[in-house]
Write the structure tokens for this entry.
Amino acid sequence: MIKNRIIVCVDLQNDFIDGALGSDAARDIVPNVINFFDTLTNNDYLIFTRDTHTNNEKSIEYKTLPRHCLLHTKGHEINEKIIQALGNHDAKFINKESFESLKLPDTIKNIIKTSNLDSSNTEIVLFGLCTDICVISNALNLRGNFPDFKISVIKDCCAGSTKEKHIAALTVLKSNLIDIL
């Protein structure tokens, strides 16, 4: 029986909800995320990732997509309604500058080590924005780093850049032994 959850809240930032890359689908998941937080227990470890860019960046992502999630801007911040829903529950926040960032797996490895967790009683749960970009890249990164852990994605707490890409990403995740809840 799974007792502990490491919950990864992927890029629930203002720019992905109602800012530069926002969408109706992203706004629609906010109540689902808030309702999910009602299920939190003392055995849950929360991590929020934040897509992070600077004005002088030269990455392919920043050259291709509209300017978004600039460090020290409102667009970079986690949505206020989501933060309020956390209440007093502790969370770690990770700024990630690229898809291949090792910050998330390293943070989870540290939680596992310091809390004495193992794959028999711990599940890694992900949700957030966008299913077809950051959620899938983080989930596959974690699958590679934690091959023996149960990993799940909560589909109703995710939104893709389009509905079709959301569905396609969920299909790929399932093919990589990631449960879709």
About this structure: The chain is about 40% helix and 25% strand. The radius of gyration is 15 Å.
